[in-house]
Design a protein that fits this description.
single chain, 155 residues, mainly alpha
Length: 155
């Protein structure tokens, strides 16, 4: 498969996880979520879409950088961690927004945070740029974890 197709597929797969989350979010962000008590550091709602879109694109590029390497030691393990974190990522919005459960969101986001860290650790030795591209995602999910926990605590 040509590399340009691998790049397109990688980005589309990552964006697909975001699209699934967006469907769950759209139904309750203006209703249920608006009624919740939120911490003072809660960002404005309009910020989440652009930030997540950029992060999903960066995740896709990171995936591509690993996928295109033929026989790298640790590649299977790295890809496994990527898929674990992507699945957990796709589950978070339906849990938090779709089921209107900050607690279930917290139960999912903590292992997601660990899986992202493990993905970075697995990607970095294979391709430093791929590992580095996931650091903003890790930082954002770190913030999101604190935000999720705060919303659960306040409500």
């Amino acid at each position: 498969m040509p590399n340009y197709l691998k790049l397109i597929i990688s980005i589309l797969l990552s964006l697909s996880a975001g699209a699934l989350g967006g469907l769950a979010t759209a139904s309750s962000v203006g209703s249920w979520y608006a009624t919740l008590e939120k911490p003072v550091f809660n960002p404005p709602s309009w910020l989440f879409g652009p930030v997540w879109t950029l992060l999903y694109i960066m995740m896709g590029i990171a995936l591509f950088l690993i996928w295109r390497i033929k026989d790298a030691p640790g590649k299977k393990r790295a890809m496994m961690w990527f898929w674990i974190q992507l699945i957990l990522n796709a589950l978070w919005s339906p849990a938090f927004f779709g089921l209107e459960s900050p607690l279930l969101g917290l139960v999912i986001i903590v292992p997601l945070w660990v899986a992202i860290l493990m993905t970075i650790k697995a990607f970095y030795p294979i391709n430093k740029l791929a590992g580095g591209l996931l650091i903003p995602y890790f930082l954002w999910v770190s913030f999101a974890t604190i935000l999720n926990a705060s919303i659960w605590w306040l409500n």
